[in-house]
């Protein structure tokens, strides 16, 4: 009888482990991913949209398409690639054009000190940034009047200034409301509906 209890105890433990493991592998919906942009969820569960008021991430409406045959689609020529990452021309404030990396892993727009000087960006604070190599570095933060990529324009954009980059990064802070397709020679920005 003791041996039977031992086997049943073992079976019970094994069943419990399998049950818990199976429940961990099941799909658990994540409410934070249900909403685009920048927001907070109050204790009551209500979602407060902060996209424009606090985060200033995305334009409120999709601009007209730069591609007359497909509304809502912008095609941006790729100039070259650095380590496989597309380099594109980006216009700032309607007058200065710089080459930048289109970095789908970057959360914001990062410019170089040379770009900041040319654009007369006035830093108003510092922001700790976690890099791809898990380093934490402080970067100055400022604003530019506008950023335009092939007719896709965003106004009053927060940028960080990296003291270590030689070329700027165009990240999610600019194109977060668009689906992106990176092709051989062009990048397509497709407005989400």
Explain what the structure shows.
The N and C termini lie far apart (66 Å). The strands form three sheets. A six-stranded mixed barrel has the order 5-6-11-7-10-9. It has a three-stranded antiparallel sheet with strand order 3-13-12, with no helix packed on it. The protein has helices at 2-25, 51-55, 113-119, 172-175, and strands at residues 39-41, 47-49, 73-77, 80-82, 85-92, 96-102, 109-111, 125-130, 136-149, 152-161, 168-170, 178-182, 186-191. The longest helix has 24 residues, at 2-25. The protein is α+β, with helices and mostly antiparallel strands and 193 residues long. 21% of the residues lie in helices and 39% in strands.
Topology, element by element:
Elements: H1 2-25, E1 39-41, E2 47-49, H2 51-55, E3 73-77, E4 80-82, E5 85-92, E6 96-102, E7 109-111, H3 113-119, E8 125-130, E9 136-149, E10 152-161, E11 168-170, H4 172-175, E12 178-182, E13 186-191
Parallel strand pairs: 6-11, 7-10
Antiparallel strand pairs: 1-2, 3-13, 4-5, 5-6, 5-9, 7-11, 8-9, 9-10, 12-13
């Amino acid at each position: 009888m003791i041996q039977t209890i031992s086997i049943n105890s073992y079976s019970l433990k094994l069943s419990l482990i399998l049950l818990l493991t199976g429940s961990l592998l099941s799909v658990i919906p994540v409410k934070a991913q249900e909403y685009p942009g920048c927001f907070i969820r109050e204790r009551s569960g209500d979602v407060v949209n902060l996209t424009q008021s606090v985060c200033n991430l995305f334009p409120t409406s999709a601009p007209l398409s730069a591609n007359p045959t497909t509304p809502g689609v912008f095609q941006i020529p790729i100039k070259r690639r650095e380590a496989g990452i597309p380099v594109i021309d980006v216009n700032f404030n309607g007058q200065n054009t710089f080459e930048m990396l289109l970095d789908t892993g970057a959360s914001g727009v990062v410019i170089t000190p040379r770009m900041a000087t040319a654009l007369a960006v006035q830093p108003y604070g510092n922001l700790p940034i976690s890099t791809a190599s898990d380093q934490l570095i402080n970067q100055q933060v400022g604003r530019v009047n506008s950023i335009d990529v092939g007719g896709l324009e965003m106004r009053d954009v927060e940028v960080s200034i990296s003291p270590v980059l030689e070329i700027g990064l165009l990240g999610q802070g600019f194109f977060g409301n668009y689906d992106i397709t990176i092709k051989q020679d062009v990048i397509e920005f497709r407005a989400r509906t």
